[in-house]
Specification:
By secondary structure, the protein is mainly beta. The chain folds into 3 domains: 113 residues, Immunoglobulins (Immunoglobulin-like); 92 residues, Immunoglobulins (Immunoglobulin-like); 52 residues, no CATH class. The protein is built from 3 helices and 25 strands. A 4-stranded antiparallel beta sheet has the order 6-5-10-11. It has a 4-stranded antiparallel beta sheet with strand order 13-15-18-17, with no helix packed on it. A 4-stranded mixed beta sheet has the order 24-23-22-25, with helices on one face. The relative contact order is 0.13. The chain binds 2-acetamido-2-deoxy-beta-D-glucopyranose (3 copies). One 2-acetamido-2-deoxy-beta-D-glucopyranose binds next to strand 15 and strand 17. GO terms for molecular function: carbohydrate binding; sialic acid binding.
């Protein structure tokens, strides 16, 4: 008596019993009518997300009803991972399609090492309970995607913004984005898409100096409380004014850096004006262009 009660109250046994009954209900159904189209292996990077496309068929004589429910679970696990009737795209795992439309696609956010497993789809309809036979296997790898860095023209003395884009188009927990190598102001933001996914960005605003040219700046993106970290380092190209020196040698003008055209020209106001005008056009965005005119007698 006690033994029977244990069986009846143990959720694992009662589930097995229900499955047995429902399978008998669908007796006469042919397995080849139940086909699931899902990749057998799917790879995801730790911290990012994964979309597993999936569709399934049922026998033509018993189409999927509007109230049909889909489950994803791990084989031999007692608890479901996902139930279509309790679906919500704000959850870590959710359905991206509708079960009555025979869409069993799923999305997993904040992918963790422990998600590496096989997954099985179960269809529950008033007259059917079917566990589909192809089980996609999720492989979780280290995070290898790097953030992308976008830098515009950097000019010494002018405030500039460099943007970092986190890898992944996900709907999970926002990553921590930080900048290393320079002092500046960081502003993190996201670009949401209507399909509940987002791309995360960070803007780094600073005023580069001449000394920042060829120095490095790193954007670091950390997921799952720094369990999974990726970074990208760039070296900065900062434009700064050249030292323009106009000197007189044997009554002729030379300039450094050299100007195009005749390498040197007679030392007179017009030629000096031409050189200054040339540098002014080329470096018009640059502050603090300094000309020195040495040894020029008129
Ligand atoms: C199931 O269907 C396949 C293909 O339609 C057929 O070859 C097979 O004999 C069927 N099996 C049963 C038990 O009806
Ligand atoms: C981030 O920087 C880019 C480039 O300067 C700018 O276009 C964008 O408006 C900035 N976004 C925010 C939220 O500050
Ligand atoms: C969501 O929308 C974005 C932008 O259109 C797209 O790149 C991404 O693949 C979509 N994700 C899914 C799961 O459909």
């Amino acid at each position: 008596m006690l033994g029977l009660r244990m069986i009846l109250y143990n959720p694992r046994y009662s589930l097995a019993l229900t499955i047995l009954i429902l399978q008998l209900w669908g007796f006469g159904c042919n397995d080849s009518d139940y086909v699931i189209d899902v990749p057998s292996y799917v790879t995801a990077q730790e911290g990012l997300c994964v979309h597993i496309p999936c569709s399934f068929t049922v026998p033509t004589h018993s189409p999927v009803s509007q109230t049909a429910e889909g489950h994803w679970y791990r084989p031999r696990a007692v608890q479901n991972l996902m139930t279509s009737s309790k679906d919500d795209p704000r959850k870590r795992m959710f359905f991206t399609g509708k079960i009555p439309e025979r869409d069993c696609s799923l999305f997993i956010n904040d992918v963790q090492k422990s998600d590496q497993n096989s997954y099985q789809f179960r269809l529950i309809d008033p007259k059917t309970l079917y566990n589909y036979k192809t089980l996609p296997f999720l492989i979780v790898t280290e995070l290898t995607d790097r953030p992308e860095i976008f830098q515009g023209k950097l000019i010494a003395g002018k405030q500039s913004t460099i943007t970092c884009r986190s890898p992944g188009i996900c709907a999970g927990t926002p990553p921590d984005i930080t900048w290393n190598g320079k002092y500046g102001e960081t502003k993190n933001f996201l670009h949401p898409y209507p399909n509940y996914t987002s791309v995360y960005y960070s803007n780094f605003t600073f005023t580069p100096s001449r000394d920042d040219d060829q120095s490095s700046l790193t954007c670091e993106v950390a997921f799952l409380q720094y369990t999974s970290v990726t970074k990208h380092m760039v070296s900065l190209n900062v434009e700064y004014p050249p030292d323009v020196i106009i000197t007189l040698g044997e009554s002729r003008i030379k300039s450094f850096p050299p100007q195009p055209g005749p390498p040197d020209s007679p030392c007179n106001f017009l030629n000096i004006f031409k050189i200054i005008f040339y540098y002014f056009i080329v470096y018009r965005d640059v502050l603090g262009l300094v000309f020195s005119v040495i040894n020029c007698t008129f």
